[in-house]
Amino acid sequence: MLRALFWGSSALIAYAHAGYPLLLWMLARARPARPETPSANAELPSVALIVAAYDEQDVIAAKIANALALDYPRERLELIVASDGSSDGTAERARSAGADVVLDLPRGGKVRAQDAAVRSAHAQVLAFSDANSSWAPDALRRLVAPFWDPRVGYVCGQVAFVNAEGTNQEGAYWRYEMAVRTLESRLGGVTAGNGAIYAVRPEAYLFVDPRMGHDLALPFNIVKRGRRAVYAPAARAQEKMVPSIEGEFRRKRRMMSHAWPIVVRGGMLSPRGYPPLYALQIASHRLLRYATPALHLAALASSAALRRRGAPYTLALWAQGALLLAAALGGRSRARPLRLARYYVLVTASLAAGLWDWIRSGTPAGWEKPEGTR
Length: 374
Fold this sequence. Notes:
- By secondary structure, the protein is an alpha/beta fold.
- It has a domain at 47-247: Spore Coat Polysaccharide Biosynthesis Protein SpsA, Chain A (Alpha-Beta Complex).
- The chain has helices spanning 2-29, 60-68, 90-97, 110-120, 139-144, 170-186, 214-224, 245-265, 276-290, 292-305, 311-329, 336-361, and strands spanning 47-53, 77-84, 101-105, 125-129, 134-135, 152-162, 198-200, 228-240.
C-alpha cells in the first residue's frame, strides 16, 4: 500500500506539471488549428467595456484614458465603471475622466458590481477589465475577433505581469500557464481566464454566486452550455505584479478561498455537460492541480516510511528535503533557482491554505487590492 501511495502520488504530480502539457502538445499536433479571426470586411460588434472598481481613485482616470485610446470605433464602445461601494473619489473621477456610465453602487463585491453593469449595458459583446490593467491599442479588436464564430461564448486575452523590482516569480509561472492555455484553447477550450482582459456574449453571461469570481466560474460553465471558451493571445494587457513571493502567496490564498466553492459547490466536479476532451482538461489542469498539496504530503510521508526499502525512496526523500531547504533559503537569497523553489512551495501551500480559509470562515463576496499592484 505504501509503495502504491508513493508511486501513484509521484506519478500524478509529474503528470499535472509536465505530462499533461506534453499530452496537450501531442493532441494539438494531431488537430489542425481553427481560424480565430473574421474576414477583413466583417463589421466590428458594439462592445460594453466594464470596469468594476473599489477605492480605485488613484488609477481609474488612467484606466479610462487607456480605454478611450483603444483602436476601436468610439461610437461602438460603451465604457461602464461600476463603483462597488467605494469610499474615495472613484465614481467622481470616473465621470470626469469620460466614462459613459458610472454606477455608484452599495458594497456588494466585484461580481455583483459586474452584474449591475451588465444589466445597464446595450452592446453585442461584454468586455471586462480590472482598474489597474492597461490594454494594448489593438487589444479590443483582437479580443472580439473570435466571436465571428457563433459557437464562441467566452474569450480571454493575455495579461503580462510587470515586476521591475522584488522577488516574485509569477512571471515565469504565468508564461508556463499561457503556453498550456494556448494548447487547451486549440482543443477543448480554456479551463480558466483572468480578470484583466476577457469578453462574453451577453446571451452567454452567467449571474454566478458573488463569492465565485468570473475567472474560474465562467469558462467551464459556458462550455457546459454548449459554447466554446477560447484564448486570444494577441489581445494583450499588462498589470503590475505583487512584488514579493510572500505577497503572491497571500494573493493566491485569497483567490483559492474563492475557487474552492466553485470546485465543490459550483458545478466543476459534475461531469454533466462536459465534452470528453474538455473533461480531461478540467480533471488534469484544475482538479489534479488543486490536489497537489495532498499529493506532495502523500509522496513525502510514503517515501519517509519506505526510505530503507530501496534507493528510489531514499532519493525521493532527499529530493523533497532539498526542495524544502531551497525554498527556505529562497527567503533570504536572490538566487533565481532558490526563489523559484520558494515560489513553488508557497504557491502549492496556498491551495491548501485557501481551502482551510473557506472551510473555517467561508468566503466573503468583497475583495481587496493585492499589495503593491497599484
